[in-house]
Amino acid sequence: MREKLAEIKAIEEDAKAQYTHTVNVCTAAGCLSSGAAQVKEALGKEVERSGLERWCQVKGVGCLGLCTAGPLVEVESQSAMYGHVTVEDTPAIVGGLNTKPVERLRVPTGTPFFLRQNRIVLENSGRIDPERIEEYIAAGGYSGLVTALTEMTPAQVIDEVTASGLRGRGGGGYPTGLKWTTVAKAPGPDKYVICNADEGDPGAFMDRSVLESDPHRVIEGMILAGYAVGASQGYVYVRAEYPLAIEHLKKAISQARRMGLLGRSVAETTFGFNIDIRLGAGAFVCGEETALIASIEGKRGQPRPRPPYPAEYGLWGKPTLINNVESFANIPPIIRNGGEWYASLGTEKSKGTKVFALAGAITNTGIIEVPMGTSLQEIVYEIGGGVPGGGRCKAVQTGGPSGGCIPDAYLDNPVDYDSLRSLGSIMGSGGMIVMDDSSCMVDVAKYFMEFCMTESCGKCVPCRVGTVQMYRLLDKISTGRATLEDLALLENLCDMVQNTSLCGLGQTAPNPVVSTLRYFRDEYIAHIEEKRCPAGVCKIHSSVAQTDSPSYAVAEVAQ
Amino acid sequence: MNRGQVRIVTLKIDGKDVGARENETILEVARENGFDIPTLCHMEGLSDIGACRLCLVEVKGSNKLLTACVTTVQEGMEVTTHSPRLDSYRRMTVEMLFSERNHVCAVCVSNGHCDLQNLAVDVGLTHITVPYLYPKVSIDASHERFVLDHNRCVLCTRCVRVCDEIEGAHTWDLMGRGVKTRVITDLAEAWGDSESCTSCGKCVQVCPTGALFEKGKSVAEMTKRRTFLPYLTSMRNGDE
Description:
The complex is a heterodimer. Chain A is of the alpha/beta class. Chain A folds into 4 domains: 17-108, Glutaredoxin (3-Layer(aba) Sandwich); 140-156 and 174-332, NADH-ubiquinone oxidoreductase 51kDa subunit (Rossmann fold); 353-436, Ubiquitin-like (UB roll) (Roll); 450-544, de novo design (two linked rop proteins) (Up-down Bundle), CATH 1.20.1440. Chain A has helices at 2-17, 29-33, 36-49, 90-95, 112-115, 133-138, 143-151, 154-164, 176-185, 206-213, 215-229, 243-258, 289-296, 325-337, 339-343, 376-383, 417-422, 441-455, 461-478, 484-500, 504-508, 511-519, 521-529, 550-558, and strands at 21-26, 56-61, 73-75, 80-82, 192-197, 233-239, 274-280, 320-324, 353-360, 366-371, 393-398, 404-407, 431-436. Chain A is globular and about 75 Å long. By secondary structure, chain B is of the alpha+beta class. Chain B folds into 2 domains: 9-82, Ubiquitin-like (UB roll), CATH 3.10.20; 123-237, Alpha-Beta Plaits, CATH 3.30.70.20. Chain B has helices at residues 26-32, 84-100, 115-122, 158-167, 202-206, 228-237; strands spanning 8-13, 16-21, 56-59, 66-67, 78-80, 139-140, 146-149, 172-175, 182-185, 212-214. In chain B, the strands form 3 sheets. In chain B, strands 2-1-5-3-4 form a 5-stranded mixed sheet, covered by helices on one side. A 3-stranded antiparallel sheet of chain B has the order 6-7-10. In chain B, strands 8-9 form a two-stranded antiparallel ribbon. The longest helix of chain B is centred in the middle third of the chain and has 17 residues, at 84-100. The chains are: A alpha/beta, B alpha+beta.
């Protein structure tokens, strides 16, 4: 198998060497939605028209990172990146291939956004065509798998993962090596590996980007996991809202099968492993592992109390390993370069790098990967380019509806699992929403509470009813109809829902409220006592003395 | 289940030493020994789902509260069933239930023999601090003998489980999510049109409130008869 991979690599390199120019067009969802497909087609036609097809190759690649400037086009030979490219710009780009790059379209690549990143998970993102397994192999893909299957025992694979210090990238931060050990030690011949790709946090799109740009990396990680824990079946649970990711994943799985890297005999060894895709039907709670398992089993997507944990009693009652997309994507380089190498990056307790999706009031919206321990300051102001127009960053929201808002004053803190927790937020899966002075923190808390309220599965009482009550109190505050007693009641409810809910959704639903109350209590007080919204976002009722009419409340809830 | 081989463990509940089989839940052991832990979704003879969160207890060494109905006992465990914190959470949980639908005891057929009403008394709930949601929900009286009144439903899913696990019909299920979750018969059809329903009435008997009741019964008559459940389950297990 090693020879086969080397041969493919050689062929790929030869083929590439034939071209003087390679024009990469980002065809991930972000750029695609701003017309990248048309740009790619026009570039191809333009190359043909200019008679350059023997020297110039136009290639669709994964995410180039700077989503805000999409559609993005990169000319490798000229190390030029073009942003906001339209079909009309294509003659100029092709015309400039043998002369000078088109300056007016260029996106500066010497900025911190590109220089400060350390791309491990995203190493191939924007460089290879995600729809061709050959390119992944040429970039060193599947070599770690072959090494592991032929030279390492499953225990050694787990040792490398443990040595790397990798922690779950889905948000929990549970040590990945420990999870693998637990599943490996669980008795029984049937075990499962599940990749959780049900990314649902508002403003988070890391997993989508990885699956769209480099699906083979996730597949390789899953096969390695299967080998390590003794599973022969894997499932990728991906939300149906990601059609392009699903398409790329499907293609990748069938290519890997044809190549002999999936199936009864993986890479000509006695180890067999298969991967199937299961689509989520749009429930946020199905990102919770027990609900996800129920959903794969064809049941209603509701969590169940843990213990027993899936490692012991998971899919169809069998020991099951569940990891997030990004966790699996980290495995191939760890096996290829060793756990020690990975552990040399990051901080003492949070190793490696983390992918973040920058969104909100930030100049460089997009996907970045930085070492753990990078300060929020650096991420927001240097890599992210700060707030557009030079405004002040008021707070950074991390961790989605389970996370919290970190105010400006604390931005010099390093980003790792523990420091974010001590600030009252969480790492989460990596969504980072930057807010400037035009954001009202009560409104932000209300937004996330509304999200949790509509996404609650309805199984346990505190989350089902508590989120509705909290949302209504927040609504009351934001419209200037609340009293200080309402605020006290809200805090009581936060405490109750946090401590008594069944699953992570309910237990963390109050976090946005708790964290904004911790840092921006004055804004709540302004809404309540002065009947005004400092940011000018909330619409305060003109007659605040109005009492709630029950029928009005019904319409709201019954909607 | 081979009881001969089950090990016995000892643990402390509210400071008292008790013995238990290792496969028993905290709730079972606590009730055997006379400790009262309030429950709503739990029903002896049905599977436990840990949904109502009323049976949460404190276990020394665990930073999270654990549901007594699904947590099995362990050697040396120290369980606290009542504390000011637990009592306050329980009271708030019952408050949540009362605020969720339209529980108007005075006009309910289950008044006086309702599990939710009894719970309110147990946790010392005299009034609720959160506003009522007053949802507009329907009543399904299409079945010839029974009525489903969503106004009183607490979504404990006892009906769903008894129908699936004991009767084997699986007529009941859930639809929707969050506060909009509803129990449904078949594929959300009228109960009277249900083809899978055997009209056995087990769902009505296990329902804790007046959400499921028999037609033509007065308040005094509408008591739930649940003796069939321990009888059926012990017969099936071949215990006695």
